[in-house]
From TrEMBL, chain A:
Modified residues (4-aspartylphosphate): D58
GO BP terms: phosphorelay signal transduction system
Organism expressing this protein natively: Azonexus hydrophilus
The protein's name in its UniProt record: Two-component system response regulator
Domain Response regulatory: 8-125
InterPro entries: CheY-like_superfamily (IPR011006), Sig_transdc_resp-reg_receiver (IPR001789), ST_Response_Regulator (IPR052048)
Pfam families: Response_reg
Keyword entries, A-Z: Phosphoprotein
DNA damage among keywords: no
Residues forming coiled coils: none
Keyword match Ribonucleoprotein: no
NCBIfam families: PRK10610.1 (NF007901)
TrEMBL record, chain B:
Keyword Hydrolase: yes
Localization annotation: Cytoplasm
Region (Disordered): 21-42
Gene Ontology cellular component list: bacterial-type flagellum; cytoplasm
Organism: Azonexus hydrophilus
Listed name of the protein: Protein phosphatase CheZ
Length: 131, 282
């Protein structure tokens, strides 16, 4: 997958402010095709609807948290190929390890910068391009 | 409801439980019903169990186990087991209440309990103000962004036209037109858009006024939390067995690390995240 500006993103976070910030940053980076979900359960519904190519998710959310969402995505045949980037305030080493083991494509700790997001996205696009 | 109402209600509850059970003679404890409530939940319960046990033991309510066991044996049904739990909790509450009273913590806790709803409101207020501020700032950037983009695009177009002038690629008519456009841009469009952008910068600055208000509110809550902490710490040190004091809670949903000093189990920046993942081969 190349860094196609039409790549369809799903931004999952329970705080509307953070969804808006991530959406704005993605726009700055040239990605305007962005949808939002306020927790893992809603995200999963939207993902099942199809059409998404990239998931950016928070960890700590009501109903379904980000790790469960990631695990569910990886266990669902038609979704498991999706890149999942976690952007979270959870900064314990065991969190990072758990996310990596569950198949996260990248891990960003909050607070983060536009530069970090750009770097991680590029890295993921590179990796998926090779695969 | 005021705090004093609460405590008289509790007082009445304690008394009713205590009078219900005091007349019954103690019998030897039976293991089965006592073990049941502890098994139902996970590891945390053992800690609580130990805490309750130690409280109960200290406050000299040896009657409890025997009475409860006897009651449960007599009925042997689910309901009676539930009743055993309720009764046990009642005795624990009574014991805890007595202990607190003896140690002088009851007043402190009463004060804290009455302060908690207030703290809750205050925190809700903080959440509200910070959310509003975030929205104001995001709205301002949404408005200012296009203004700046427009200035940039317009400057670029004019700049390209002037490059043509310097490359002698313009007729006198086109040059005249360019001069008029440039003048209009400098005198009208530019000031309008910079003023518009400036207004949004001011809006962003003013949106930070929450910090003064939330700062004051948060300081009060920090003071309350400190009181509560020192009170509860004192209480725990009095009643908790040594072995239980050092166990910490492990969970994957802790939110932001507010104080990473001296901790080795957390990362403090993105480089450390990347290093950790690299070192693990991810």
């Amino acid at each position: 997958m190349a860094a196609d500006p039409k790549t369809r993103f799903l931004v999952v976070d329970d705080f509307s402010t953070m969804r808006r910030i991530v959406r704005n940053l993605l726009k700055e980076l040239g990605f305007t095709n962005v949808d939002e979900a306020e927790d893992g359960a809603i995200a999963l519904q939207k993902l099942q609807g199809g059409g998404f190519e990239f998931v950016v998710t928070d960890w700590n959310m009501p109903n379904m948290d980000g790790l469960t969402l990631l695990q569910t995505i990886r266990a669902t045949p038609n979704l498991k190929h999706l890149p999942v980037l976690m952007i979270t305030a959870e900064a314990k080493k065991e969190n990072i390890i758990a996310a990596a083991q569950a198949g996260a494509s990248g891990y960003i700790v909050k607070p983060f910068t536009a530069g970090t997001l750009s770097e991680k996205l590029n890295k993921i696009f590179e990796k998926y391009g090779q695969a | 409801m005021s705090a004093s109402n609460d405590s008289s209600d509790l007082e009445a509850l304690f008394d009713s439980i205590a009078t219900d059970y005091q007349p019954v003679a103690p019998t030897p404890p039976a293991p089965a019903p006592v073990a049941t409530p502890a098994k139902s939940v996970d590891g945390d319960n053992d800690d609580l169990q130990a805490l309750f046990d130690s409280v109960a033991a200290e406050s000299a309510v040896p009657v409890a186990k025997g009475v409860l066991a006897a009651a449960a044996q007599a009925q042997g049904e689910n309901w009676s087991q539930q009743e055993v739990v309720f009764n046990r909790i009642g005795h624990m509450a009574r014991a805890l209440h007595d202990t607190l009273g003896q140690l002088g913590y009851d007043k402190l806790i009463e004060k804290t309990v009455s302060a908690l709803p207030d703290a809750k409101d205050r925190l809700a207020y903080v959440a509200n103000l910070t959310e509003q501020a975030a929205c104001r700032v995001l709205n301002a950037t949404d408005i200012a962004g296009p203004l700046v983009d427009d200035m940039a695009a317009r400057s670029k177009t004019l700049g390209a036209s002037w490059d043509k002038v310097f490359a002698n690629q313009m007729t006198p008519e086109q040059f005249k037109q360019l001069a008029v456009e440039t003048r209009q841009f400098l005198n009208q469009q530019m000031p309008e858009k910079t003023q518009g952008t400036h207004a949004q910068l001011t809006e962003i600055m003013m949106a930070q006024d929450f910090q003064d208000l939330t700062g004051q509110v948060i300081k009060k809550i920090v003071a309350l939390a400190q009181d509560l902490e020192s009170g509860l710490m004192g209480l725990l040190i009095e009643v908790l067995p040594d072995a239980k004091r050092t166990e910490e809670v492990t969970s994957l949903m802790n939110g932001p690390v507010v104080n990473a000093e001296g901790r080795t189990d957390v990362v403090v920046n993105q480089e450390q995240v990347d290093d950790l993942l690299d070192s693990l081969g991810f």
